């Protein structure tokens, strides 16, 4: 577990430089290139408002970070997914078990204390305790 945490720490330190800083790219040359193209080339090489799929971009960037920054092969993804599913269900089971245990403990505590409280009126019939209870 410590080895995995160290790898995550190193990976975060590597990515920190790129994720924390603001990056500004000068695209004036690319824009001037589009103005110099003829209309047919503008249709073929559409550069103005390039649209891209953000989900695909994030998926590719995560796989790249995994492969190049964390030095983990992409062939281990199915094993890691199975491991994550197992840990997810273990987490759920542990939470349900803990909640059930706390509920059971509360029910037993209330039942025991409720029984004791209901039986307090019977203390007056015990000879030693009953005689002292009438004095007060």
TrEMBL record:
Q: Name one Pfam family in it.
A: Sterile
Transmembrane segments annotated in the record for this chain: 89-110
Provide this UniProt record's keywords sorted from A to Z: Membrane, Transmembrane, Transmembrane helix
Domain of life, per lineage: Eukaryota
Q: Which residues form the Fatty acyl-CoA reductase C-terminal domain?
A: 1-72
Output the InterPro entries linked to this UniProt entry: FAR_C
Name of the protein in its database record: Fatty acyl-CoA reductase C-terminal domain-containing protein
